[in-house]
């Protein structure tokens, strides 16, 4: 139930956690996209 408490309780702490999580996920996806792009460019140049 603590999960739901965190969601229900409005507070800067909760917002920060959510924003940090989203930011982290976004950064991971961006780095994945970059490596994919690098790989495809290398394949094209072969």
Structural summary, described in words:
The protein is mostly helical and 46 residues long. It has one domain (2-45). It is built from two helices and no strands. It has helices at residues 2-8, 12-45. The longest helix has 34 residues, at 12-45.
Please provide a brief summary of the model.
This protein has 46 residues and is mainly α. Helix content is 89%, strand content 0%.
User: How many domains?
Assistant: 1
- Work out the radius of gyration: 18 Å
* Percent of residues in beta strands: under 5%
Mean pLDDT: 80
Kindly report how far apart the N and C termini lie.
55 Å
| Shape summary | rod-shaped
**Total number of beta strands:** 0
- Biggest β-sheet strands, sense, barrel: none
> What is the oligomeric state here?
single chain
Order of helices and strands: HH
Q: State the secondary-structure class.
A: mainly alpha
Give the % helix: over 70%
**Model regions low in confidence, pLDDT < 50 over at least 5 residues:** none
- Total helical segments: 2
Defining key terms:
mainly alpha, 46 residues, 2 helices
Topology of this structure?
Blueprint: H1 2-8, H2 12-45
């Amino acid at each position: 139930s603590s999960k739901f408490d965190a969601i229900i309780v409005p507070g800067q702490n909760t917002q920060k956690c959510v924003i940090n999580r989203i930011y982290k996920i976004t950064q991971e996806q961006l780095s994945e996209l970059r490596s994919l792009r690098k790989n495809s460019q290398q394949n094209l140049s072969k």
